[in-house]
Amino acid sequence: MNDPFRLDERVAFVTGAGGGLGEGICTSLAAAGAAVACVDLDADRAEAIARRVADDGGRSLALQVDVTDSAALGVAVERTSSELGGVDVLVNNAAIYPRRAWTEITEDEWERVLAVNLKAYFLCARACHASMKQRGRGSIVNVSSVTFLIGFDMLLDYVSSKGGVVGFTRALAHEVGADGITVNAIAPGAFPTDAEKIHPDPEGYNRWVLDQQCLQRRGTPDDVGNLVVFLASGASSFITGQTVAIDGGWAMH
Question: Does domain 11-246 fall into CATH 3.40.50.720?
Answer without folding.
Answer: yes
